[in-house]
């Protein structure tokens, strides 16, 4: 009985330590209420067993927006116009060779993107939804 309890407690500690959180570096905004002057950007990291215990850093035009944990979401407002979404290179997670997502965003709209594992590039990438 004591041994089973110890094994259960050890498994719970490993589970909790393995869960990464999402940390946003810029002010968070509501996804359903974009202003008429700015665009709302939402980036969600889809579930993946690859790198599940590590965070992925998201950059908007080279500026850090936040760090995505597994199944996390970052939501922020930005001026309309050209935008480059990229992921900071990270050992075994994001390769230097991954092409950033370049697009143009319009004011008053919510633009949704995902961070997913790409088997062909063997790296996480940003894709439009």
Could you provide a short overview of the structure?
The protein has 129 residues and is mainly beta. It has one helix spanning 2-18, and strands at residues 23-24, 38-45, 56-60, 63-68, 73-79, 81-87, 101-105, 110-118, 123-128. The strands form two sheets. It has a five-stranded antiparallel sheet with strand order 1-4-3-6-7, with no helix packed on it.
Please tell me about this protein's structure.
- The chain is built from 1 helix and 9 strands; from the N terminus they run H-E-E-E-E-E-E-E-E-E.
- By secondary structure, the chain is mainly beta.
- The chain is globular.
How are the elements arranged and paired?
Elements: H1 2-18, E1 23-24, E2 38-45, E3 56-60, E4 63-68, E5 73-79, E6 81-87, E7 101-105, E8 110-118, E9 123-128
Parallel strand pairs: 2-8
Antiparallel strand pairs: 1-4, 2-5, 3-4, 3-6, 6-7, 8-9
């Amino acid at each position: 009985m004591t041994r089973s309890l110890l094994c259960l407690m050890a498994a719970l500690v490993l589970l909790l330590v393995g869960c990464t959180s999402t940390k946003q570096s810029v002010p968070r905004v509501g996804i359903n209420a974009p202003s008429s002057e700015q665009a709302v950007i939402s980036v969600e990291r889809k579930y993946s067993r690859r790198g599940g215990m590590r965070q992925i850093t998201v950059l908007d035009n080279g500026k850090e927006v936040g760090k995505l944990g597994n199944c996390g979401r970052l939501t922020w407002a930005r001026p309309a116009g050209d935008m480059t979404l990229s992921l900071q290179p990270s050992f075994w997670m994001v390769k230097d060779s991954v092409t950033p997502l370049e697009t143009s965003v319009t004011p008053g709209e919510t633009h949704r993107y995902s961070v997913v594992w790409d088997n062909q590039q063997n790296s996480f990438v940003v894709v439009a939804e």
